Amino acid sequence: MITDPQVLDFIARTEAAYPPEANGASAADNRRFYDAMCAVFRAPRPPGLPVQDRRIGGVPCRIYGADIPVAVVYVHGGGFVVGGLDSHDDVCAEIADATGLQVVAVDYRLAPEHRWPAQIADVQAVWDALDRPAVIAGDSAGGLLAAALCLSRRGARQPLGQVLVYPGLGGDGSAPSYRENAEAPLLRTEDLAGYHAALHGEGPVDPLAHPLQADSLAGLAPAFVVTADVDPLRDDGRDYVRRLRAEGVAAHWRNEPELPHGYLRARRHSDRARRSFQAILAAIQRFAGPPR
């Protein structure tokens, strides 16, 4: 399914540090593998970019860029089990530098030490304490949290837009991508069950954790959803956009051929990933509007 040599090289380099079995390891071992993999691809921050760590709404955050009237709230991926401020540091820094917007990265609590709804509660706390309009963006698990934030604040202050990158949105597993990409590189369908169990345990699942299964998506922020074609979660993004459009919400779906889950880290090594990242930056800027 993937023939692009740049993408194949990215997959090989990723799996050398983060082998497929890491997804099924203990949380501690999974994080150790994941952090090592992130270090392989982490790029230096743009020179002169202001960065500070502080709490917003009681939640640890990292702030990139100048204090301006519009922000981007970024929610990192990692299956709700791995990742943090350092794992997506370079991505957030590049978003701030390229768009001129201030980026607020949220260090939400991780599972299994903290079950749902701790994660969305942290994102909500940051959102409610933010004193300016903002775009919300997130990749993978962070994409679900971004969509869940929009759902939870329907009828209240919505983001200027939601930018979701290869999100898992609570699909029921019946969509074709779960079968077609069951053994996809970097994320397999079987891995999703393990992350789901870590997040929810044996308890009932909050409907907010499954945006695709919400009764209504009407009234949510406009959306730009980008998916990786070689990813079991691909059709979650497609179906979310279809539902948003059917309920009167402006939404755009962009699917990336030959790219796997997690390809944001390939943006400096793969032409395909770089073009996708540029489209993501453009979407953020469109939602944020002209400089204020």
From TrEMBL:
<keyword id="KW-0614">Plasmid</keyword>
<feature type="domain" description="Alpha/beta hydrolase fold-3">
    <location>
        <begin position="72"/>
        <end position="264"/>
    </location>
</feature>
<dbReference type="Pfam" id="PF07859">
    <property type="entry name" value="Abhydrolase_3"/>
</dbReference>
<dbReference type="InterPro" id="IPR029058">
    <property type="entry name" value="AB_hydrolase_fold"/>
</dbReference>
<keyword id="KW-0378">Hydrolase</keyword>
<dbReference type="GO" id="GO:0016787">
    <property type="term" value="F:hydrolase activity"/>
</dbReference>
<dbReference type="InterPro" id="IPR013094">
    <property type="entry name" value="AB_hydrolase_3"/>
</dbReference>
<protein>
    <submittedName>
        <fullName>Alpha/beta hydrolase fold-3 domain protein</fullName>
    </submittedName>
</protein>
<dbReference type="InterPro" id="IPR050300">
    <property type="entry name" value="GDXG_lipolytic_enzyme"/>
</dbReference>
